[in-house]
Amino acid sequence: MLSLTCKTAIKAVIYLASKFESGEKSGIKEIAEFIDASEHTVGKMLQTLVKAEVINSAKGPTGGFFITGKQKNQAIIKIIDAVDGKNVFEECGLGLSKCSATHQCPIHNDYKVVRDKFKTLCQQKKVSDLCDTVNDGLAYLVG
Amino acid sequence: MLSLTCKTAIKAVIYLASKFESGEKSGIKEIAEFIDASEHTVGKMLQTLVKAEVINSAKGPTGGFFITGKQKNQAIIKIIDAVDGKNVFEECGLGLSKCSATHQCPIHNDYKVVRDKFKTLCQQKKVSDLCDTVNDGLAYLVG
DNA sequence: ATAATAAAAGCATTTAAATACTTTTATTAT
DNA sequence: ATAATAAAAGTATTTAAATGCTTTTATTAT
After folding, report:
1. What is the rounded CA–CA span in Å between residue A119 and residue A12?
2. Which ranges of A19-86 does DSSP label H, i.e. alpha helix?
3. SS3 of A94, please?
4. Are B139 and A104 in contact (CB < 8 Å)?
5. Which site among B14, B34, B38, B118 would you substitute to test the A interface, given the most A Cβ atoms closer than 10 Å to its Cβ?
6. Which residues contact B71 (CB under 8 A, 6 or more apart)?
7. What interface predicted TM-score (ipTM) does this complex get?
8. Share of chain B residues as helix, strand and coil, in percent rounded to the nearest 5
9. Sign of dihedral through CA atoms B116, B110, A134, A30?
10. pLDDT by 10s per residue, chain A, length 143
11. What is the pLDDT of residue B51?
12. Cα B5 from Cα A132, distance rounded (Å)
């Protein structure tokens, strides 16, 4: 459903959220190492997130990437929209270019239920929620 | 969730199912044209389906691909298992290589619900069910 | 002002999926 | 038996995503 880069993006933002309390900024290398992803992929993707105002950045010494309290309270769908685009949640289950109630593929109705359920999940889960599970040792970003 | 080839496979099998009554066999070109897919991709993929006994084939003149009554009554998960492999329904929502109840990613529980719902859909929908919706003009294989 | 630091940006390479091409094998009708 | 047909199989190319590398720009501390 989501691209590898998008999954990496969600993990990176969760990591930044975990640094919110301390106010620390994080560099590309540090983030990539922690979430076990390619440094270059992470760099490109973080730029995308900055442009979409999902996270922030500062250049120069003491610079790095960081997140605000407001951004921490955003749902993860914001990350998905920024990285994979808005029509992730509109795609046909059988790959038809135009699949809707009026011209549908054979699994349209059932697939829509699943897809919508995933969308709701992405709309409801906040970055802070996911960050909490990691902080509490209930979930992990690698493995 | 599913590869393009797998989506193509489901459409191809539905097409073959629609030819079951008449007993006609269908060639690669005919199938590819009807479902609007690459002839070469369809050829390779049909071989995979034959090996997995999801469909049948016959070489030579009057040969082609066809489906039996028993095969028509199979669930579409058989097609998915054959083309994309069995662990489509085990994959982690955030791309962790090992994500389970004991070592989970931050969205594991919610994602599992969605994934399992999709799996159930694929286990319940028979080729014949999908074929019927197309025959009845309620659904399409192209567009 | 200068040097150091770190993100931003542009371009190149790699990888895997999809698509394309060619040859081989089996089968059927003549 | 032979020729025609169509799947099977093997190899090659293309495409898009991911990854890698290099240069540029902005910022901060000295």
Report:
1. 20
2. 28-35, 39-51, 69-72, 77-84
3. coil
4. yes
5. B118
6. B53, B54, B55, B56, B127
7. 0.92
8. 55, 10, 35
9. positive
10. 899 999 999 999 999 999 999 999 999 999 999 999 999 999 999 999 999 999 999 999 999 999 999 999 999 999 999 999 998 999 999 999 999 999 999 999 999 999 999 999 999 999 999 999 999 999 999 98
11. 95
12. 39
Distance A44 CA to C9 C1' (A): 9
The pLDDT assigned to B55 comes to 97
Distance, CA of A30 to C1' of D30, in Å: 25
Per the structure, the residue whose CA is closest to nucleotide C6 at C1' is: A60
Q: Which residues of B touch A143 (CB under 8 A)?
A: 96-99, 103
Mean pLDDT, all residues of chain B: 96
Burial of A118 (0-12, 13-18, 19+ CB in 10 A): buried
The pLDDT, as a whole number, for residue B45 is 97
Residue A24 and residue B113: Cα distance in Å, rounded? 35
Query: Cβ separation of B99 and A143 shorter than 8 Å?
Result: yes
Candidate from B2, B105, B129 with C-beta closest to A140? B105
8 Å CB contact of B104 and A4: no
Question: Could you tell me if B64 and B26 are in contact, meaning their C-beta atoms sit under 8 angstroms apart?
Answer: yes
Give the list of residues 6+ apart from residue A2 with CB closer than 8 angstroms, or none.
Answer: A80, A84, A88, B93
